[in-house]
Design goal:
By secondary structure, the protein is of the alpha/beta class. The chain folds into two domains: 117 residues, Leucine Dehydrogenase, chain A, domain 1 (Rossmann fold, 3-Layer(aba) Sandwich); 168 residues, Rossmann fold (3-Layer(aba) Sandwich). 45% of the residues lie in helices and 16% in strands. The protein has a six-stranded parallel beta sheet, sandwiched between helices. The chain has a five-stranded mixed beta sheet with strand order 1-2-4-3-5, with helices on both faces.
């Protein structure tokens, strides 16, 4: 196994912790990329990785993405990520969550955990029984409008898709715009409902075929197999599942002039942002368009910490700024002839003092 600090995904991370608790069976990685703007904040992912190196790669890439996401959203947080390695059956126990909460507490506030793929509100409550350095709690624990950040993420992605359609397609309405959504979970499903309400035509796919089929029936959309969604001819391709989906082969097969979706780390490598631009595809940098969830849970956490009411108007205003932030990136991309992903990275690196 390659040492993580020799990996191409290691980016001067400040701290990488391997956590193992024999009694509960917990094995986890907590990676903190930058604390320049504040404690490393980001979701915890529960996933089965056939190869442990894939788990480390996810932790490194996702924590860096959180540094960039939090910086670009103007949040007083650095970038961190937790990855819990599930067994093949993806069994999860309260004891594992309790052990994970103790591990977070031992870091003394260096990492603020939130909910991500494979985690639930009850999981976050179990973690919170061991540490205060956690957010995204059930509403009864966090106050009104706490809990799953997915709806905030999907709303922000919807605003970003609408702006991408305006900039990339020259359309001021989503009526009749064909959007292909990869992933119909909390974020993708919420996005689909927003788009359907705005009159968009939808094609949906998910590794859970039944879930995609149910949502398609609900919204009058079309469901296709998960392996076919990236080849659907459409106006907007919206990835809302796992990352690293854009590589040489998949970009060559894309049949959409716009890519805008909620998945993290969509580009397999940085050069794939260049490849999208070379094909004339407008790309919405993922950590800018999908920041709604971390915006919401950050203000939840700050309110918990300070013993104050969460400022919902401030959350809504910050999420409403996502289109403006995207447009600034696209305008600079056009003027400099540089891919939007490169522009966004440069802007974020400057904000965290790494330019």
């Amino acid at each position: 196994m390659t040492a993580f600090w020799e990996s191409a995904d290691f980016d001067e991370h400040e701290r990488v912790e391997l956590v193992h608790d024999r009694a509960s069976g917990l094995t986890a990685i907590i990676a903190i990329h930058s604390s320049h703007l504040g404690p490393g904040a980001g979701g915890t992912r529960f996933w089965h990785y056939p190869d442990p190196e894939m788990a480390m790669r996810d932790a490194l890439r996702l924590s860096r993405g959180m540094s960039y996401k939090n910086a670009m959203a103007g949040l007083p947080m650095g970038g961190g990520k937790g990855v819990i390695l599930a067994n093949p059956a993806r069994d999860k126990t309260p004891a594992m969550m309790t052990a994970y909460g103790r591990a977070i507490e031992a870091l003394g506030g260096a990492y603020i955990a939130a909910e991500d793929v494979g985690m639930t509100e009850p999981d976050m409550a179990s973690i919170a029984a061991q540490t205060s350095f956690v957010t995204g709690l059930p509403a009864e624990k966090a106050g009104e409008q706490g809990g799953d950040p997915g709806p905030y993420t999907s709303h922000g992605v919807f605003l970003g898709v609408r702006e991408a359609v305006r900039v990339g397609l020259g359309k001021t309405s989503l009526s009749g715009v064909h959007v292909a959504i990869q992933g119909t979970g909390s974020v993708g499903g919420g996005l689909a409902r927003h788009l359907a309400a705005a009159g968009a035509r939808l094609t949906l796919a998910d590794i859970d075929k039944a879930r995609a089929a149910r949502l398609a029936e609900e919204l009058g959309a079309t469901a296709v197999p998960a392996e076919a969604i990236m080849q659907v001819e459409c106006d907007v391709f919206s990835p809302c599942a796992l990352g690293a989906i854009f590589d040489d082969e998949s970009i060559a097969a894309l049949r959409a002039p716009v890519v805008a979706g909620g998945a993290n780390n969509q580009l397999a490598r940085p050069e794939h942002g260049d490849a999208l631009m070379q094909r004339g595809i407008l790309y919405a940098p993922d950590y800018v368009i999908n920041a709604g969830g971390i915006i919401a849970v950050t203000y939840e956490y700050l309110a918990q910490r300070d013993g104050t009411a969460r400022d919902v108007s401030r959350i809504e205003a910050s999420i409403a700024g996502i289109p403006e932030r995207l447009t600034a990136i696209w305008e600079r991309s056009r003027s400099e002839g540089t891919a939007p992903s490169r522009i966004a990275d440069a802007m974020a690196q400057k904000l965290i003092g790494r330019d």
